[in-house]
Amino acid sequence: MNKENQHAMQLSAPQVDTLIFHAEKLYEITDDRTKDLTFELFQKLQSIAVCGDDECRELWISAPRGSIEEFANYEEYLEDGEVESRKEFEELWLSEYPEPQKWYLLSTVVYKEIHSVFIGGKLVLQYQPELQGQYPYDKSELADWLLTAVKKAITSLKAGEYNEYVNKNLPYRKRIGKILREDYWRVFPEEKEEYLKDIEPNEIARFAELIKEQPTDSPVFRLQEMTAGLFFDCCRLGYEANRYEGIEKSTPKEMYRTHADGRDEGLSNLDESSAQAFDTWYNDKKRYGGHPWEVCRGGNSTHISLYVNHDEKGWWLALAGLNRSVETVKFYLALVDHGFPVFLTDGREIADMLIGKDYIGIVPEGVIPRYCGSLFQGEKILTFMNLPWEETESVEKAAIWYPIKEAQLA
């Protein structure tokens, strides 16, 4: 083994992370040495099976935590006020690198002539033929470390040891799992209390019974006409059920203007009593693009929508607000109690959430716990989290962990 490869194998996780940090900022390969090492990396990876589109190949590799001196300079941290003592410095080091080794998921793809290397989903190296010779920036140390780690992993794979080693040693923080919400609440009872503080047990029980009878796609009956005023009044029922501030002396339209998204496409300018005006507005395709149905504003996944729908039978409402489930349930109950035809999206799943009978998906660190359904094929898991830093072992024991995708030889 040459000295360069020996050095690459000895890189600690903080050193690797520094290389990744800099490579992310300028991932294009423009120097010959990095190019040669990267192409050798792709050549070595030909011996493992493709696991996705564009010749995607993946391997788990790791680097040792290393010494505290490789993490940072204590004197510099002390002088800059980052820490106040050696003990605090050591605690910071172990909080950043809690395991004896840090694991990285290496992914490579080839699209046309573009070769891309990802570490933990971050693009760190990319070869594009037309960029050669432009602004040379040497990233060979990272490429060398990757090549050495891949050679070691492939040797282990050929010996029949790699998958067993990964399965035994990969931290749960890097894995996919799920936990029954009531089991999660046993570990964190204060989160259950906070989640359910604005809804009474009898409301939950009544909602659970009502939602059992909900049809699969729309309510049973319809309204024969819809007006802007009627829609604003439906919104009022939801706002009042949730005791929104500032509604005591407001009209339903004023409440809507206060709490809705604001991009209503002219809805609040309609004659509130005219079914014809609403029908004409509703069917005007030129108005499409706003957010008239976002009645409780929020982010992409944190708002509540009350959609108006029409079919050959008449008018009906569809309510959606999974990530504000308690508010949405109270909104739903208010509409049902006043005789409106309303369909609640994900209604049965929300009922399970309120009684703790649904599963929370656990996604790997670095994955934002939103829109992660594709990680749970064949299951309808709607809420997600990363493994918590507190009571971690209790959550790990209570969770169900999915098998790690095994690497295969080509």
What's the β-strand tally?
A: 12
Percent strand: 15-25%
Low-confidence stretches: 1-8
Please give the alpha-carbon distance between the first and last residues.
26 Å
Radius of gyration, in angstroms, nearest whole number: 28 Å
Morphology call:
elongated
* Structural class computed from helices and strand pairing: alpha+beta
Q: Overall pLDDT, averaged?
A: 93
Number of helical segments with 4 or more residues: 17
Helix content: 40-55%
Strand order of the largest sheet: 1-2-3-4
Order of helices and strands: HHHEHHHEEEHHEHHHHHHEEEHEHEEHE
Largest sheet: 4 strands, antiparallel
Secondary-structure blueprint:
Layout: H1 3-9, H2 13-25, H3 32-45, E1 57-64, H4 68-71, H5 74-79, H6 86-96, E2 101-111, E3 114-119, E4 122-127, H7 140-158, H8 162-169, E5 177-180, H9 181-187, H10 189-195, H11 201-212, H12 228-241, H13 252-259, H14 275-282, E6 294-296, E7 304-311, E8 314-320, H15 325-337, E9 342-344, H16 347-355, E10 359-363, E11 383-386, H17 392-398, E12 400-401
Parallel strand pairs: 8-9, 10-11
Antiparallel strand pairs: 1-2, 2-3, 3-4, 5-10, 5-12, 6-7, 7-8
How would you concisely characterize the structure shown here?
The protein contains 17 helices and 12 strands. With 410 residues, the chain is of the alpha+beta class. Helix 1 (3-9) crosses helix 7 (140-158).
Report on the architecture of this protein.
By secondary structure, the chain is of the alpha+beta class. Among the domains are: 3-65 and 100-170, no CATH class; 221-340, no CATH class. The protein is built from 17 helices and twelve strands. The protein has helices at 3-9, 13-25, 32-45, 68-71, 74-79, 86-96, 140-158, 162-169, 181-187, 189-195, 201-212, 228-241, 252-259, 275-282, 325-337, 347-355, 392-398; strands spanning 57-64, 101-111, 114-119, 122-127, 177-180, 294-296, 304-311, 314-320, 342-344, 359-363, 383-386, 400-401. Helix 15 (325-337) links the parallel strand 8 and strand 9 (342-344). Helix 3 (32-45) runs parallel beside helix 7 (140-158), helix 12 (228-241) crosses helix 13 and helix 12 crosses helix 15 (325-337). The protein is elongated and about 75 Å long. The chain starts with a helix and ends in a 9-residue tail after the last strand. The relative contact order is 0.13.
